[in-house]
Structures are given as C-alpha cells and as structure tokens.
Amino acid sequence: MSTLEIKDLHVSVAAEDGAKEILRGVDLTIRGGETHAIMGPNGSGKSTLAYAIAGHPKYEITGGEVLLDGEDVLAMSVDERARAGLFLAMQYPVEVPGVSMANFLRSAATAVRGEAPKLRTWVKEVKGAMSELDIDPDFADRSVNEGFSGGEKKRHEVLQLSLLKPKIAVLDETDSGLDVDALRVVSQGVNRYRAAGDVGVLLITHYTRILKYITPDVVHVFAGGRIVESGGADLANELEENGYVKYGAGAEAAS
Amino acid sequence: MTDVVSGLAPELAGANRGAGLVPVASAGERFTSFDVDAFEVPGGREENWRFTPMKRLRGLHDGSAALDGTAAVEVAGAGEGVTVETVGRDDARLGEGGTPADRIAAAAWSAFREATVVTLDGTPEPVTITVAGPGEGATAASHLQLRTKPHAEATVVLEHRGSGALADNLEVVLADGSRLTLVVTEEWADDAVHVGAQHFSLGRDATLRVTSVALGGDLVRISPTVSYRGPGGDAELVGLGYADAGQHLEQRLLVDHAVPNCTSNVLYKNALQGKEGVPDAHTVWIGDVLIRAAAENTQTFEFNRNLVLTQHARADSVPNLEIETGEIAGAGHASATGRFDDEQLFYLQSRGIPEDVARRLVVRGFFGEILSRITLPELRERLEAAIEAELAVTGA
Question: What SMART domains does the annotation carry (chain A) (predicted)?
C-alpha cells in the first residue's frame, strides 16, 4: 500500500512584484485505497498544490516535504515523479502538435512500466481502455490534445490514468467543463481505476457534483493556501448548501 | 480554355499577356540569364538576398570565389534504362530545364567545365548520385541534369556530402507522361557552403515528387523553380530542414503555373535548435506560387511549418501567392511557426517520459510527415538516424 505524505508544504510563484506565497503549510496524508476530495473557492491554491506535487517548474517549494512511500518526491524530476507512481490529471491538458496520441501513450507506458509493452497486448489494452471511455478509435492517430474539445481532453486524461496505473492520482478539476454524460463516463473511469488496485486519489474540485459519482472518504476544505477543515463525505453536502462563505475570510486571491 | 480572362482587375490587365506562347514573367518578372555579368553583385539588401548572411558565402556571389575546385559526381546503381554522360558546355540539352535567376546560379553556369547528364528510360532501378564538395577552403561550380524519356518511371537519390563551397545548377527535365521521384539530401560537413538552383521542368502529364532533407553544412541555400511545359503536370515538393546552432538553411521556391490543369503541392518543415554564444540557428523559407492568366484550373497549395526547439533560433517564412486568373481549381498557402515550449515538455514528462525522449518524440512527430514520403527504407532509416544524431549533439 502506498502513502503520499505532504508535510507543512509552502509554495511560491514568481510574480511581477517578487515571489508570492500561495501554499502556506499544507498537511495531508493519502493512503492507498483512500479517496480524498479537496474543495475550495477559486484562487485558494488547490491547483497549485496539484502542480507542486507534479513538479511544474513555475512553482517554487519554499518549505515542507512531499514523500511517496518515504521517498523524497521534491528531489525528483517531473518524469521521475511519474515513474515513481504519481499522476496528475490536468485541468488544462497541453496540446503537443505532431505527436500522435498512440505514440504518446506507448512512450508514456514504456517509461512508467520500465519496458515497452508487448505490441499485441498493448493495442488490445488501449482499444479496450478507449472504448470504456467512449473515445473514438480515430483519436489514436490525432496529435496529443490538438483540437480536442474540453470533454475529449478530460477523457484522455482519464485514459492515461487507466493505462499508467499510478499509485497516487491527483485529479485537478477533472469535472470542469463536462456535460452530465461526459461527467458520468469520466467518473466511471476513475472508479474503475480505484477498484482495480490499492490506489490513492486526490480529487480537486470546485463543485460537489462529481462527488455524487465518486464518493470520497475524506473531504478537505481548502482556503488561503491551506486546509482549513476536514471531514467525511457529509462535509461536501454542507458546502453545497452553504458555499465557502464561512471560509472566505482566510481566502486570498491566488491562482 | 479562353484567351481572355474576364473580370480581371485593371491592375492585372497586363496578366493577359501571359496567356500567349511566351509567358511574360511577373513574380515572375524576375531577371534570368546564363551570363554571370548580367547580374549586379548583390550587397545583401536585395529582396532575394536579404535573409542570406553574405559574409559566409565564401565569395560565391561577388566573383572572389575562384570556382576552380572539383565537385566529384558519382552515379551508383545505373542499370538498365539509365544513361550517364559527361558532356561539354556546348551540349544542346543543357539549359532546357531553366535559366539561372540569381548571380550565384549564373556564376555556376558560367564556370562549370563539364556537366553530368543522367537520362532515365522505362522503369529503372533507383539511382543514387553523390555530389562531393571540393574540400575545405576550396570552391567549385558544378552542373547536373536529370532527364526522363516519355512515360519513364524512375527514382533518383541525390546526396550532397563533403567540405568546401559549391555553387551549382540542377536541371530536371521531365518528358511527357513520365514520373520522377527525387530525394535530395544535404549532408554536408560543418564548414560547407552550398548555393544551388534547381530547375524543374515538367512536360505534359508529368509527375514530380521531390523530398529534400537539409541537415548539414554551414550555409545551404537552395532555390527550386518548377515550371510546366504542358497541361496535366503534377509537382509535389516536400522538405525538411534541421538547423542547429550557427547553421543557415534557406529554401526559396517558385512554382510557376503558366499552363492549364496543373497541380503543385509544397510542404516544408524546419526544426531549429540554437545555442548561446554562436550565431542563431536560422531557417528561411520563401514560397512563391505564381498562377498566370493562362493557367486555368490550377490546383496549388503551399505550406511551411517551423518548430523552434530552443532559444537562439530564428525562422523566417514568407509565403506568397500571386493569382492572375479567377478560373482556378484551388489555391492556398499557410505558414506557422511554433515553439516547443516548457508546458509541452512538462506535460510529456508528467507522464514519465524523460526530457530527451520527449524532445525526440516531438521532432520525430514533426518530421514524420516528410520522412514517410521516402519509400526507400534504408535511406529513410539512415536519415532518421541522422536526425536523431543531430538531436543528440545539441539536445538537452
């Protein structure tokens, strides 16, 4: 069973008037088999947490630790983190013109699994995973995310999740921009991933609607760059009714 | 076919003259001559020289290059249906493909001592022609003509290697109904300078497929001109260039549609990878397409894409479409220059792909469209390997 430990994490970004602190001491532990939801108002730093864990160069870690099964994640390069078992489903997946989805998926699987998947089983595996997410087989020949709609991009993030089978997956607003049908398909994909192994999920969302499909074990409220309250699934219901007003005082604009 | 183009804008009225037996030039109205002295010595500010680093031309443009070296031409694989001749300057066939349109092409024409003429008939096996530079510090002029017999179908690989400076003309004269697949590689040593004019002349219903691969050399400037002698001609020119630090790769194309029912398709892709402290990696792509008044039912498309992999790189791209008749099947042009940016790198790395592999994926994907046109597997694999090697040299 894997464990991701985030201890007193402080993160800044470079701004015009010097470094700006966005995360102000985040403490969070996610164990295999658990699903945590992080909810919070826009600008509370939720996405920064996701990108900092993945190692985006824009974010500077100014304090704290991130450990995956005791290994220092912050000392790893971006690709090393992924190979160690971390995955970030991005809110805005990046277009990579000229690289076909098929080629990209195979390269990623080769890197993460440490060897090239056997061609025959791989083709089958990809086809199956695509059909589970209602992705047209033609997408395999298209450039990575190029010209994809918002919903198509999200499906492909979950497709990668299902093929790369990380130990811990961070899903950053995977529900945003999805219609109800797409939300259901994407959520089912995440649930299949959860069911298939002893994996941890950190679900970052602004809205509660995805939590109707993916039931969290723990809900955290994020405001002002840290977790201000944690509770069970019913905390989400309370947020749905009352919004983030109660936490608004501590929330400074940050993105 | 009509002689008069109706509804022509007043400023284009003169274009009607192009409908006659002797087409009047327009983009077209560029000066051409076999005589080097008919051209002014370019200073570098002229439209057709403004992107070229004149100081690195080794004097090919101003007469200071002696052009007394030898660029050896070797023909391999010349079996049945292939005739290889070495001919003097007075051979009547020389010049059929076209006339030099800049001073260096004219200088090459004025200086070459003997020309190689390769005639292709029937369906010969692929022929490989290697042109070697004159050696470091030397300058040379050379001349090569490829000809097809009517309805011939042939494949020619033309490789450029070695050191020194070369000015040359390549004539490709396609007979009616013939088909030529030509792969031209620029695999020069680091010091080499190659300024080449390519004259493609297509007979009635002739088909030309050219793939150009520019990898080596200090400065490589190639100016292909496509002209059609009869209707039904079909030309496709695709190319790739990989400019690394300090390298200047220039492609200047003119497709001259002067007769009806012809097709042209141009696609060039360049990748650039510069380095601090050396001159920019520089690519220049000029794509001129001229559809003269007589060239009704022309179908043409030209496209240039550049991928800037690093800083210290500069891609110039100038697509230019001149249309003198409204009676065309289709015409389009496009140019796009993009950067391999940090976000793309982050995305690929976040899926476990190491940085060097990510970079290779992007470049391979980018060039795949061009390399896939090369049907000779060994050649394609060698060029793919050469590109990988370029990536490894300057890659992260």
Answer: AAA (SM00382)
List chain B residues with CB under 8 Å of A94: 343-344, 346-347
Does the beta carbon of A141 lie under 8 angstroms from any beta carbon of chain B? no
Q: How confident is the model at residue B9 (pLDDT cuts 50, 70, 90)?
A: very low
Nearest to B361 among A77, A78, A99 (CB): A99
Q: Do A104 and B351 touch (CB under 8 A)?
A: yes
Quick: pLDDT tens for B227-286.
999 999 999 999 999 999 999 999 999 999 999 999 999 999 999 999 999 999 999 999
Give yes or no for A108 touching B (CB within 8 A).
Answer: yes
CB contact under 8 A, B349 and A77: yes
The residues near B6 (Cβ < 8 Å, ≥ 6 apart) are none
| Per-residue pLDDT, B5 | 37
Please give the residue of chain A at the shortest CA–CA distance from B370: A98
As a whole number, mean pLDDT of residues A25-43 equals 95
**ipTM score of the complex?**
0.95
Residue contact A111–B352, C-beta within 8 A: yes
pLDDT higher than threshold 60 for residue A254: no
